[in-house]
Amino acid sequence: MCGVFGVWGVPEASRITYLGLHGLQHRGQESAGIVTARGDQLYSFKRMGRVADVFNESALDALPGTVAIGHVRYSTQGMSIVKNAQPFAVEFAGTSLAIAHNGNLTNAGELRAELEAAGSLFHTTMDTEVFVHLLARAKGTLVDRLQKVLPRVRGAYSLLILTPDQMVAVRDPHGFRPLIVGRAPSGGPVFASESSALRLVEAVAEREVEPGEIVRVDADGETSHRVGASLPQPHQCIFEHIYFARPDSQIFGARVYEVRKAIGRRLAREEPVADADVVIPVPDSGTAAALGYAQEAGVPYEMGLIRSHYAGRTFIEPSSSIRHFGVKLKLSPVEHVIRDRVVVVVDDSIVRGTTSRKIVRMLREAGAKAVHMRIACPPTKNSCFYGIDTPTTAELIASTHSVDAIADFLDADSLAYLSIDGLHDSVTGRPGFCDACFTGNYPVPVPQVRFEGRLTERD
After folding, report:
1. Please, are residues 69 and 61 in contact by the beta-carbon 8 Å criterion?
2. Catalytic: 2?
3. Taking the model in full, what pTM does it have?
4. In contact, 198 and 5? CB cutoff 8 Å
5. Which numeric CATH code is attached to 257-308+325-439?
6. What is the largest CA-CA distance in the chain?
7. pLDDT digit string (tens) for 113-127?
8. In which residue ranges of the chain is CATH 3.40.50.2020 found?
9. Fold classification of 2-235 (topology level)
10. Which residues of 167-182 are buried (b: 16+ CB within 10 A; e: fewer)?
C-alpha cells in the first residue's frame, strides 16, 4: 500500500514530484519522501506524515535538480518509523542510489537471513532494503545487476531507482502493482503508480511499464529491458479495482470508475432487494458501485452517509458515553434520506466487520425501516501478501463465519456479496488477475505461519 512517482529532465523536479505524491496520497499516509539528483549527488528529504505536512518551501528548495523520485508509504513490511520511510538512499558501488518500492516480497525473510549470514548489515526492517544488498553483490551495470538478482526475488514490486546519472523503473513479472509511464509538457518521462498523479502535473499517460520490464532513462534517452527470458501469466491485483486505486485513474488497461460501476450493476442483478426505497454508498470507495447498483435496479440513489474529509488518523476521544465515536467522526447519516425507508447500503468490502456493524446501527438509529448490506466483491477470506495491508486470516470475519452469521453480527436485514464470476466478468482491460484474498489461490508462494522465528510457506 504505497505510491511511487518519478520525473526526468523536468524543471523544478522536487515540486513536480511533491504534486505527484499528492495525487497518490490515498496509497499511503504514514510517511513521504523525495530524492533528487544534480551533478554527481543525490539530495534526500523524508519524514513521517502526509505530503503537505512533510514538505514546505525550504524542504523543496533543498532538493535541487531536474530529476527526482518520490514515495508515499503505508507499511506492510517493516515498522512505521522514520528510518523505514522511502525513498531509501545509500552509497552504492562508488556512487549513490535511491530506491522507492510499492509491493511486498514474500521471501524477504529468507533472503535477509541469507544476506546477514554472508555479512550484510541491514539498517531498516523494510523488505525494500533486500534489493539494495542483492544489487551490491552483483556485477555489471545497474540493468545487468537487476537482471541477475530479480529472478531470486518473489512477490510484488513496482520500483523506481535513481542514481546521479540514470533512473530505472521496474515491474515484477506478475505485474501485481500498477506502474504508468507518461510524458511531461517538457518532454521528459514521468512514472507514477496511477494515472491520476500524472494528470495533476499535466503529464500525459502513454503506457504501463510491462510486467517483467525494466525501463532505463539517462541523458541518451530511454531503453527497455526484460527480467528473465520467459514470463508467467500476469496476476494483476484485482483489489486495486475494487478499493485501492483512485476512481479517476486508469490501471491495468481499464478505467477504475467504469469498472466499479460495472461491479455495482452486476451486484444488482445477482443480489436485488425487491422492496428497496433507496440505494446509498459507504463513501468514498463504495460510491461508484452504489451508483451502478441503483441504475441497474431502478432505485433512487442518494448520499445517505456523508464522509468527513477532515477526520485524521489520531484524535482525542471523549468519554465512552459517546458510542461508536470513531465511525461517527468519519461518517454522518442524512436522516431525511434514511428515515422510514428500506435502505440498500453498498460498500466495497468487509474486513473484520466491526465498522460495518457500526454503520448498520447508525442507520437504524437514523430511522431506517430496514438495512440491506450489499458488498461489491466476494467475501474476503485470505490475507494479501503482495502489498495490500490486510489483517491476518484469523481476523477476517469471512474466514470463520458464514454469510448468514456475518449478517447476524452486523444486525443487517440481509447481506450479500458479489460472486467471484461476477467480479471477473465486471473487470475489463488486460486479462490475468490475482484474486487470492477471495479464493486463496496464491500465484506466488506466501508466508503461512510464523512460529519461533521459522517461516513455512503455502504453495
Report:
1. no
2. yes
3. 0.90
4. no
5. 3.40.50.2020
6. 71
7. 888 888 888 888 788
8. 257-308+325-439
9. Glutamine Phosphoribosylpyrophosphate, subunit 1, domain 1 (3.60.20)
10. bbbbbbbbbbbbbbbb
